[in-house]
Amino acid sequence: MSNHNEKYEKLAEVIKAHKEQKGALMPVLQEAQNIFGCVSEDVQKIIAEGLGVTLSEVYGVATFYSQFSLQPKGQYVAGVCLGTACYVKNSQKVLDKLCSELGIQPGQTTADGLFTVQATRCLGACGLAPVMMINDDVYGRLTEAEVPAIIAKYKAS
Amino acid sequence: MEQMIPLTIDGVKVEVPAGTTVLEAARKANVNIPTLCYLKDINETGNCRLCVVDTGARTLQAACVLPVTPNMVVKTNTPAVRAARKLNLELILSNHDKKCLSCPRSQNCELQKLCLDLGVENGDRFAGAQNEYPLDLSSTSIVRDNNKCILCRRCVGACKNQKVGVIGAMMRGFKTAIASPWDKDLASMACINCGQCIAVCPVGALTEKDETKEVWDVLADPTKHVVVQPAPAVRAALGEEFGFEMGTSVTGKMVSAMKRLGFDKVFDTDFAADLTIMEEGYELIDRVKNGGVLPMITSCSPGWIKFCEHYYPEFIPNLSSCKSPHEMAGAMIKTYYAEKAGVDPKDIVVVSVMPCTAKKFEAKRPELGHDGLADVDMVITTRELARMIKEAGIDFANLPEENFDKLMGESTGAAVIFGVTGGVMEAALRTAYEVLTGEELKDVNFHAVRGMEGIKEATVKVGDLDVNVAVCSSTGKAAELLDSIKNGEKTYHFIEVMGCPGGCVNGGGQPIVTAQVRNWVDIRAERAKALYSEDESKTLRKSHENPEIKAIYADFLGEPNSHKAHELLHTTYAKRELYK
To answer: For the whole model, what pTM was predicted?
Structure first.
């Protein structure tokens, strides 16, 4: 609980630090995302009130930029690259397999909070296409058949 | 002396003040550059790209946001410019539902007119994926149909100017939609129902919640006694729907049309405006004399009231306890009139015709009623009345002028100016002066509170008392004024607030005037002329001189702020949350 309160105190400090600054919304949202891991409705309301802007404005910015997440992300964020090189090497099938194994759609998080699936742009490892990253681990030259074993590894750890 | 900038537009040399946009300068060269997203003071973002012009720059420029520079050479009519405008329009059309035949904005739609003007031959040139949205029918006042929305963001600007800001552009790219956070419906947001979003929408994406069907139904029901009452501002704008010049008062024809539509009685909300002045004037005098909460703030505008309840609840004790005029009229129709006419109040249906969409919400407030009956049963806007008149085939322009029905049809000049910012204040001052001093007010015109500025202030000498008053219109300006009171910068005795800029003449239920007019004409001032000239034409210009007002107090209410008056004509307010 104290951890929870600490986060909100930190958010209040961030708002205070940026309040008078023009264009404060973006940096505050970014720092809020760092503190909480996402910008929930609750957090956005606090930001709106703190900066004296409307919730519509906050939500509009939060949904425009893809780096902001409205829901908490899972412990493991699995991103499958749909950049050109990976795509022509069948990364869509890898992504589909990942989704069907976990029972969620890209952008969603599993109910147990363990996995979030994302379709990403180029990860800069085209030589390894198709590529998937789970947190900081890179999996290259993947086939869809390998996906279940990889997931099982994280579930076990 | 402001600096003048010379430039050439389509070969015509013009000079305009520094800071003028190319769009404005082009008017001087008799060139109308097409616009769609641009609306002066509300949305100046240059996002639709229909006003592009050739300035010799690398790319075409948006004229609406491009300031003139010295010796600029602008071409507004080249093949490249025409092609670009048309292309941009066709791309906008690709995600528009194009159901013009059943659209309430047909023939008054800016998108439709541009397609004609710019010669779009194939509205489906870029046929492809199209978003499909459910209608948002949650609000009592406003309907949003995003299938028609072209993402111009004018409504967002209007809502923001009102300091409400419950809508915005959400998501990104093809998924972009004008909506509320988390896709919440409008009714669950702190929307004040003012309808300024409707008034600025270029297409049919925003409309009022239509109640004409319900009105037709009761008119056809022989067991119902249907009484109608139009607000002051309706007569100042209804004519626009039938080809009359803006600022023409059409009171007599409006009454005639209402009788032909089959209403059993046509009373005037103006009568109730005079009644409001009596109640509100005496309430103010009481507060001043007996140390009540000051400043007292008017309560006629339901958009303003809801704004106060959501955003400034600390000012609720300052609000006059008076119901708004049409609610007072409703209460009197179902008691005083019912008694006089020998009609069972349960059989009476009160229909208000209002320049306002917030009145639809107001009429449904549970506290605004008596003996289990709502004071007002239905509210239609000026636009809805016009539609009914058209549907009935009434030749409005050639109608004879008729008078309101007796008992609640008489009104003074003080009442008719309720429809414009400053009007309630002026009317109140006319009565308060004579009541407090016992002397005749020689000049009834209070010019200091007239005009279209957002906030007006005056100090009026009433006997020995210096009365400090303020008048503001638009809730955005009200917020500014209330903040200055909170900070201790300002002190007043009496404040008039109207929720819409300019007051009811520019209400969210009035005939829609396209940007092609609004960008160049102050429609608020034009419509206000109709009301001020009607005021001047009246023999009686002070509310307390209205013979029917004298009669209602003598026969029914007793005196202003009597126990009976409080029971029927006054109300209460409550704090509302920002989010549901």
So the answer is: 0.93
pLDDT for A1:
45
Pick from B250-254, B288-292, B342-346: least confident: B288-292
Residues 6+ apart with CB under 8 A from B342: none
Question: What is the rounded distance in angstroms from the CA atom of residue B290 to the CA atom of residue B164?
Answer: 35
CATH number among 3.10.20.90, 1.20.1290.10, 3.40.30.10, 1.25.40.10, domain A76-156 = 3.40.30.10
Q: Domains of chain A: which residue ranges? A: 2-64, 76-156
What number is the ipTM of this complex?
0.91
Query: Looking at residues B127-156, what average pLDDT do you find?
Result: 97
H or E element in which residue A49 lies: helix A41-51
- Report residue B71 as tokens: 């010796």
Token representation of residue A147: 């996906």
The pLDDT of B516-545, averaged and rounded, is 97
Closest CA to B478 of B352, B303, B340: B303
Residue B353: its H or E element: strand B348-354
pLDDT given for residue A2 in this prediction: 56
Contact B236, B225 (CB under 8 A): no
Q: Which of B95, B92, B29, B23 is nearest to B61 (CA)?
A: B23
Q: Which amino acid is it at A10?
A: K
Do the Cβ atoms of A59 and B167 come within 8 Å?
A: no
Residues in chain B: 580
Specify whether B100 is catalytic.
no
B580 assigned to active site = no
Domains and CATH numbers, chain B: 4-93 (3.10.20.740), 125-208 (3.30.70.20), 213-569 (3.40.50.1780)
Q: Residue B75 has what DSSP assignment?
A: B
A152 Cβ contact partners less than 8 Å away, ≥ 6 residues apart: none
Q: Is B74 helix (H, G, I), strand (E, B) or coil?
A: strand
pLDDT digits (tens, 9 = 90+) for B439-483: 999 999 999 999 999 999 999 998 888 999 999 999 999 999 999
Chain A residues within 8 angstroms (CB to CB) of chain B? 41, 44-45, 54-60, 63-66
Query: Is residue B367 among the annotated active site residues?
Result: yes
